[in-house]
Amino acid sequence: MTILVIAEHDNKVLAPATLNTVAAAAKIGGDIHVLVAGQGAGAVAEAAAKIAGVAKVLVADNAAYAHQLPENVAPLMAELGAGYSHILAAATSNGKNILPRVAAQLDVDQISEIISVESADTFKRPIYAGNAIATVQSNAAIKVITVRATGFDPVAAEGGSAAVEAVAAAHNAGTSSFVGEELAKSDRPELTAAKIVVSGGRGMQNGDNFKHLYALADKLGAAVGASRAAVDAGFVPNDMQVGQTGKIVAPQLYIAVGISGAIQHLAGMKDSKVIVAINKDEEAPIFQVADYGLVADLFEAIPEMATLA
Amino acid sequence: MKMLVAVKRVVDYNVKVRVKADNSGVDLANVKMSMNPFCEIAVEEAVRLKEKGVATEIVVVSIGPSTAQEQLRTALALGADRAILVESAEDLTSLAVAKLLKAVVDKEQPQLVILGKQAIDSDNNQTGQMLAALSGYGQGTFASKVEISGDSVAVTREVDGGAQTVSLKLPAIVTTDLRLNEPRYASLPNIMKAKKKPLDVLTADALGVSTASTNKTVKVEAPAARSAGIKVKSVAELVEKLKNEAKVI
């Protein structure tokens, strides 16, 4: 049994979610190979070769793979993946975009966003926004799976010394092209990898008020997230959204500020180790999942907390 | 140009679902069913493209039980021109649905297919991508903006770090994210008119598609419940507890 893990990267840096995906592969058991598809991604391949437990790194270097366009990388993954028992990718926006295309090309059903490995063919995954957990068994010759990072503790980034091998396969479907991207720049930790997350909801009232959360987050070394209500109201950009359809986070500490606690939001953070809720409405459902609740005006509580923390 | 929109009948997003006692699935008896919210956004986008004069005909399709005709009628009331139901009582996987949609695409030859990015019941987020693979079309998933010009479509996509824009040759597949548009409500006259719009019912057999699956759901459980903790009285007490009790800061 050999497992192919798709590396998540931007041609420069290997994303931490790859380490959680390798951890899921290690639970399945067998040799682990990592595929780095990109352009000029030598540093990523080197980083992948150092991951504990990885036996081989395959590098497909081609201009057509530079932006992870699924029309081009999915045929590559389906071709290479044909010799493997499992193909795993992180359930990031790239993984979700590409892997179903790979599964369809291999004519197998995909298993999305697994949170645990029961055996080599059986996995658990949340459905209905996390209100139910399904155990799914696959009899596909090649099991195509996306992995929810919060379900698996990352393996060590160092300690391995895998062989790096170039792959010649070139696929360029010619049906799509990259136009541009607008990526948020931030010195704060990445939302899905942060140990502490401070999130704001509709109670923040406007985007400017998020400065209070940024101040607290910087004091705690935390990332800043938001509820769908705050994103829909235009307070902050969509890449900050935590929830069923946004990012799934499970930090050591999650501080929900001015967030009522819609099911949709809880689906994205209820696996956090410690949850703090600060809300002036003591009936807010968020208090039902919070380890520590504080009924208070956030505009007084947050600056005070930043001073005391 | 002709557009195809795929919609799914799912449990209404306001319903808190319960797992059945025998762990065979989720209890959907006497539960309100609706059009999947992402599919509503897909219908709205197609209707807007028609209002702009870009789309000439909107065909809406659903794969599901006969009761999914309700959701198709809703789509017709919102502005779709005709509907197709591929009737199937079984719980189909995304790949099976994608194969059935591919057969409909082959028949209808739309220039653009719009789907929701995921259904809020299975949370798979697979069907659009699989349909794109089977059709050999380009895909613009998690779309927050769709602009058609000539024989291509520019799709701005919501990605982990922000936004990405890709250009796809038509025909192409688009899946919708939350902020693509705000769906309208159907007006009463339009609901009445929708009753007279054509709705064809087909079967998987008639389309010559096998819906066999490699996945089997073994059991469905309720998630581990998280119990409510304590209320603290002040910020000072909160910070003290986080430092000394929970030891997380």
UniProtKB/TrEMBL annotation, chain A:
Keywords, in A-Z order: Electron transport, FAD, Flavoprotein, Transport
Cofactor note: Binds 1 FAD per dimer.
Protein name per the record: Electron transfer flavoprotein subunit alpha
Source organism of the structure: Pseudomonas fluorescens
Origin superkingdom: Bacteria
Residue stretches making up the Electron transfer flavoprotein alpha/beta-subunit N-terminal domain: 3-182
Cofactor(s) the record lists: FAD
Subunit structure: Heterodimer of an alpha and a beta subunit.
Protein family membership: Belongs to the ETF alpha-subunit/FixB family.
Residues reported to bind FAD: 202, 227-228, 241-245, 258-265, 279
Coiled-coil region: none
Organism phylogeny: Bacteria, Pseudomonadati, Pseudomonadota, Gammaproteobacteria, Pseudomonadales
From TrEMBL, chain B:
Protein's UniProt name: Electron transfer flavoprotein subunit beta
Keyword Transport: yes
Gene that this sequence comes from: etfB_3
Example GO BP: carboxylic acid catabolic process
GO molecular function terms noted in the UniProt entry: electron transfer activity
Family to which this protein belongs: Belongs to the ETF beta-subunit/FixA family.
Coiled-coil residue windows: none
Keywords, in A-Z order: Electron transport, Transport
Species per Swiss-Prot/TrEMBL record: Pseudomonas fluorescens
Oligomeric form and interacting partners: Heterodimer of an alpha and a beta subunit.
Job of this protein: The electron transfer flavoprotein serves as a specific electron acceptor for other dehydrogenases. It transfers the electrons to the main respiratory chain via ETF-ubiquinone oxidoreductase (ETF dehydrogenase).
Keyword Membrane set for record: no
Cofactor list: AMP
Residue ranges constituting the Electron transfer flavoprotein alpha/beta-subunit N-terminal domain according to the UniProt record: 23-211
